[in-house]
Write a structure and sequence with these properties.
The chain is α+β, with helices and mostly antiparallel strands and about 210 residues long. The chain has a single domain (about 20-200), classed as Alpha-Beta Complex (Inorganic Pyrophosphatase). Helices cover about 20% and strands about 30% of the residues. The chain has three helices and ten strands; from the N terminus they run E-E-E-E-H-E-E-E-E-E-H-E-H. It has helices spanning about 75-80, 150-165, 185-200; strands at about 25-35, 40-45, 50-55, 65-70, 90, 95-100, 110-125, 125, 130-135, 175-180. The strands form two sheets. A five-stranded mixed β-barrel has the order 1-4-6-9-7. The chain is globular.
């Protein structure tokens, strides 16, 4: 009987079984959960690694960019320290929005994203940063290096989406966008999230 190498036997967990990429934090691996064409909020199930339905989108807002996370990151105490006024990190992998000129309609994909900056968000007292990047090699946005290299309208659409996608009629908003930051600050947040992950889950094997 032929023995198949163990890494072919099981699908790697997208959060724990993949890595942030060899060029992190300049260029990172991003696992995409939601596309701009989705009206359902999908999220990786932390136990199984499969994509599950989190909730239908209550409002008419659709994500203006690809949306997912950077593997082997965790928003814990180090990320919290970079977000004044937060009580804790949100306990999830670090979110990332990726701009692509060509429509990408599939989720559960991996891509390389060049980091430009991010949005500093507090969600009910929790640090919930959204890193912003562009698809590596994109023919329109690929030369961008800072958040300010993108049209202001694109960033405003991202902010509007995150400001409204959890709104419930009759309830006060629990999410606040307290600022934007550039590449250097985004790299600091990513490094903090990697260190938070390693404190909780340990350093990757090898």
């Amino acid at each position: 009987m032929t023995t198949v190498a163990s890494h072919f036997n099981w699908r790697p967990h997208p959060w724990h079984g993949l890595d942030p990429g060899p060029d992190c934090p300049e260029v990172v691996t991003a696992y995409i959960e939601i596309t701009p064409f989705d009206l359902i909020k999908y999220e990786v199930d932390k136990e199984t690694g499969y994509l599950r339905v989190d909730r239908p989108q209550r409002t008419s807002s659709q994500p203006p960019a690809l949306y997912g996370f950077i593997p082997q990151t965790y928003c814990g105490d180090r990320v919290r320290r970079l977000a004044p006024g937060c009580e804790r990190g949100d306990g999830d992998p670090l979110d990332i929005c990726v701009i692509s000129e060509r429509p990408i309609t599939h989720s559960e994909i991996l891509l390389r994203a060049r980091i430009l900056g991010g949005l500093k968000i507090i969600d009910r007292g929790e640090a919930d940063d959204k890193i912003v990047g562009v698809l590596e090699g994109d023919y329109v946005w690929g030369n961008a290096r800072e958040l300010t290299d993108l049209p202001a309208t694109l960033i405003e659409r991202l902010e509007h989406y995150f400001a409204t996608y959890k709104l419930v009629p009759g309830e006060p908003p629990g999410l606040k966008i307290i600022g934007r930051y550039g590449h250097a600050a985004a790299a600091e947040v990513i490094r903090a999230a990697i260190d938070d992950y390693r404190e909780i889950y340990g350093a990757p094997a090898g």
